[in-house]
Design a protein that fits this description.
Elements (H helix, E strand, L loop, with lengths): L8 E6 L7 H12 L4 H5 L2 E6 L5 H14 L4 E7 L18 H4 L2 E5 L25 H34 L2 H5 L12 H16 L21 H55 L8 H38 L2 H57 L7 H37 L11 H65 L8 H39 L6 H41 L12 H17 L3 E2 L5 E2 L4 H34 L1
Parallel strand pairs: 1-2, 2-3, 3-4
Antiparallel strand pairs: 5-6
Helix pairs in contact: 1-3, 5-7, 5-8, 7-8, 8-9, 8-10, 9-10, 10-11, 10-12, 11-12, 12-13, 12-14, 13-14, 14-15, 14-16, 15-16
Length: 678
């Protein structure tokens, strides 16, 4: 590391007692001589051969070897001899005589005399100098420098190759994925860090900064260490920057290729297996269970699609990020990928949604159809059960329930038509692109099924309506039958009340002929009312017979009511006839009696015969006798008009009039008795 007085570099060769390998020494010298620059080499070398611990023949061999290794560069060779000089063999070889042959001067000098030729500051302590030198430290730093130089040079070659390949930008390079050949053999960051650390050591101009001696740098600028490191670092930074850009471009290209590959995977699956799954699912089912099974199958298909849709969302986010930070050259390709992916995914999602809506509409249609079918079954079951109500009110309630069920069926059928039409509209709007093929045949089967269900429900509803009409007519007839039976029973009651009134209140026979005639006229009107009541009851009972024949049933009340009606009417007729007979008798009695009583006594010739008085008395007695006789009915029962007091009152009026007639008779007889005596 020192310099001679001519500024030439000093090369020290320490020899030891062990056998020195000339080959290794030659290699070492070659290496050391390769370090200085050509300018330094031109100033020559001063070689110090430290032979104090070696033998003469080794020293001589080393000196002679210098002739072969560095003959031109060596200007002076200082052989440091030991204190005890070598034997006489040295005298046989005089180096100064061999100067011309060797090409450099060789001198033998003691260590303490070496300062005559070299300044002490350029000699190490081994030779009595003051130059600070640590060979191991120099060696370690040199190894670091050599390693850095080797790695950086190799790395520069690799980076240059990689960058050149990256700059080609051929389609073949773009399509090639990153492999191990693309990565450098060493980490550029590590090499750069090593270089910076080395440069920092060199810029301190000493190897061992901890010593306080004079600064000394065996790798001086003249040794090209620091400039070479700086140049390598600059080249590394340049190539590494290009390498990073290439890596970024390749990473972007790789990412783009991965995205494109994933996009094609999504597109191929959706247009392949995904669409095929939908192609095989075109039916809507023929029942709720079948539609639910198809919905479950569709949910499985949707689940598979969801996984690919999740990939689509992730890819869309990645593409959006690349579009925000991408280069102009990638925008077109990225947008095309994004558009293609979105078109396929949205089209497939639309197909899935259409299929889901179709199945939901089919499920609702079958649900309404099932409810309507159950309503029709319930209505039909109600119609198939024979009606046997107890009265008209229960019939009215049953009829109301029947009408409500029919109205519910009408609403259900209307709802079914609406659901069916909605489902048909969805099917008719289904284009061939929905499943990627012509679905006319499949749609026709679905349409035929829907129309068939609606027509079947319409026919069943029509049959039920017809049966309801028949049942309604029958139930109305039954209501009329019960009404007729009730009215007929009421007519019997009315007639019974008339009979009772006839017996209890129609008692008076009148005090004179005029009053009796009035009573007789009122009785005839009373009989007309009873006759109307009887006729009304007979008509109602005849209507019940007709209704029973129409309903093919036996009335429970009409068979009992008709005999009752006839019996009451018979009793009324007998009672009425008795009443008429009594009134007529009373009228005849009062007329005859009043006529006799009103005749003048001065006309005795009109009473020549006393038979009229006898007839009146006979009629009066007959009437009195009849008042005491009860009315006898065909069944043997008897009834009296009024109470005994009522009958006694009526009889008293008859007796009084009979007394008047009898008195009149006596008065007429007296003149007849006095006439013969005169």
């Amino acid at each position: 590391g020192g310099k001679d007085r001519r500024s030439g570099l000093i090369l020290t060769i320490p020899l030891c007692l062990e056998q020195t390998s000339m080959d290794e020494l030659s290699v070492t010298l070659d290496y050391l001589l390769s370090i200085p620059s050509e300018k330094c080499k031109a100033r020559g070398f001063t070689v110090i051969v430290d032979g104090r611990k070696s033998q003469w023949n080794v020293v001589k061999t080393v000196v002679l070897m210098l002739q072969n290794v560095v003959p031109a560069e060596v200007s002076l060779v200082c052989v440091v001899k030991p204190d005890e000089f070598w034997d006489k063999k040295v005298t046989h070889f005089c180096f100064w005589k061999e100067k011309d042959r060797l090409g450099f001067e060789v001198i033998l000098v003691s260590a303490n005399k070496l300062t005559r030729y070299i300044e002490p500051c350029q000699l190490t302590e081994d030779f009595g100098g003051t130059l600070t030198y640590d060979h191991m430290d120099w060696l370690n730093k040199r190894l670091v420098f050599e390693k850095f130089t080797k790695e950086s040079t190799s790395l520069l070659d690799e980076l240059a190759l990689i960058n050149n390949e990256g700059d080609k930008g051929t389609q073949q390079e773009k399509e090639r994925s990153i492999d191990l050949n693309f990565l450098p053999s060493v980490d550029p960051e590590t090499v750069l860090q090593t270089g910076h650390e080395l440069l920092s050591e060199l810029q301190q101009r000493r190897f061992n900064g901890s010593d306080g001696g004079v600064s000394w740098s065996p790798m001086d600028d003249e040794l090209l260490a620091q400039p070479q490191v700086m140049k390598l670092l600059d080249s590394l930074r340049e190539q590494y920057t290009r390498y990073q850009e290439v890596c970024r471009q390749r990473s972007k290209r790789t990412q783009l290729e991965e995205i494109q590959q994933k996009v094609m995977q999504v597109v191929n699956w959706l247009e392949g297996p995904g669409s095929e799954q939908l192609r095989t699912q075109w039916g809507i089912g023929d029942s709720i269970r079948a539609s639910q099974a198809l919905q479950q199958k569709h949910e499985e298909i949707e689940s598979q699609h969801s996984e690919w849709f999740a990939v689509y969302v992730e890819l869309n986010q990645q593409i959006a990020a690349l579009l925000n930070a991408g280069d102009e050259e990638d925008l077109v390709e990225l947008k095309a990928l994004q558009q293609q992916l979105s078109d396929v995914c949205y089209r497939q999602a639309s197909q899935l949604e259409f299929r889901q809506n179709l199945l939901q509409a089919a499920l609702e249609f079958h649900s309404v159809a099932q409810d309507l079918s159950q309503q029709l079954d319930g209505l039909l079951g109600m119609l198939c059960v024979d009606v046997a109500p107890a009265d008209g009110a229960s019939i009215q309630q049953t009829l109301k329930l029947l009408e409500e069920k029919l109205k519910s069926v009408d609403l259900g059928l209307q709802g079914l038509r609406e659901k069916g039409q909605s489902l048909l509209d969805q099917i008719s709007n289904q284009a061939s692109w929905a499943y990627g093929k012509d679905v006319t045949i499949e749609n026709k089967e679905n349409v035929d099924h829907i129309q068939g269900v609606m027509e079947d429900m319409q026919l069943r509803k029509q049959r039920c309506e017809d049966m309801v009409d028949v049942r309604r007519l029958k139930m109305l007839q039954m209501v009329q039958l019960f009404k007729c039976e009730e009215d007929a029973a009421q007519a019997v009651e009315w007639l019974s009340e008339l009979l009772d009134a006839l017996l209890k209140t129609h008692i008076r026979l009148g005090d004179d002929a005029q009053e009796t005639k009035v009573l007789l006229e009122k009785h005839r009107k009373f009989v007309d009312v009873a006759q109307s009541t009887y006729d009304y009851g007979r008509q109602l009972l005849q209507a019940t017979v007709v209704l029973c024949q129409s309903l093919r049933c036996t009335s429970r009340s009409s068979g009992d009511t008709l005999p009752r009606l006839n019996r009451v009417w018979k009793q009324f007729t007998i009672t009425s006839e008795e009443r008429v007979h009594r009134l007529e008798t009373a009228a005849a009695f009062h007329s005859s009696a009043e006529k006799i009583l009103q005749e003048c006594p001065e006309q005795p010739e009109t009473f020549n015969e006393m038979e009229q008085f006898d007839e009146i008395e006979a009629v009066g007695k007959s009437l009195l006798d009849r008042l005491t006789v009860p009315v006898v009915y065909p069944d043997g029962s008897e009834q009296y008009f009024g109470s005994p007091s009522d009958m006694a009152s009526a009889a008293e009026h008859i007796r009084e009039k009979m007394k008047l007639v009898s008195l009149k008779k006596q008065q007429l007889r007296q003149p007849e008795a006095t006439t013969p005596e005169s």
